[in-house]
Design goal:
By secondary structure, the protein is mostly helical. Helices cover about 70% and strands about 5% of the residues.
Length: about 160
């Protein structure tokens, strides 16, 4: 890790980085003369793995964002439990237009918060299902590609 960070900072490869990036003599001998040719179907699998990995990263970021939104809604709900029922309260989730907020009575705001929270839960559930299927597919591709290329390919991220 330190070697790769020194590489990124300096823009040139340090001796430690080049030595750690080199194959051992046994690995060179194993790969050496019998390097496998990358077929079209292999390249397609590698490309698909890359696309799935990118999608997985985006979905993980989306999950973090949704978790933050849900936490914010729960925090607002707990704050509203202390509010006076006759007070009008700005609700920013559903009625935000640019920088303007609409004032609503407390019961309506609580109802909208509950709806927003359940909508987020549904979204999180759907995203987790997508993420699960992507992870299954990437694992299957890893198995296929490692079976074909062995140590000469690195799919660990």
């Amino acid at each position: 890790m330190a070697a790769s960070s020194s590489l990124a900072r300096s823009g040139t490869e340090s001796p430690e980085a080049s030595e750690s990036a080199r194959l051992s003599k046994e690995d060179e001998a194993a790969v050496g003369n019998d390097e496998l040719e990358v077929r079209r179907e292999d390249q397609d699998k590698i490309n698909k793995f890359s696309r799935l990995h990118q999608r997985e990263t985006l979905l993980e970021e989306e999950l973090k964002s949704r978790a933050k939104e849900k936490e914010d809604l729960e925090e607002i709900s707990s704050e509203l439990e202390l509010a006076d029922e006759d007070e009008k309260i700005p609700y920013e989730e559903l009625y935000k237009l640019g920088d303007a907020f609409i004032m609503l009575p407390l019961p309506e705001v609580q109802e909208l918060l509950a709806k927003g929270s359940s909508k987020i839960e549904q979204s999180v559930s759907a995203t987790e299902e997508k993420l699960s299927s992507i992870r299954e597919e990437t694992e299957s591709l890893k198995v296929d590609l490692y079976a074909r290329f062995g140590k000469s390919i690195n799919l660990e991220t």
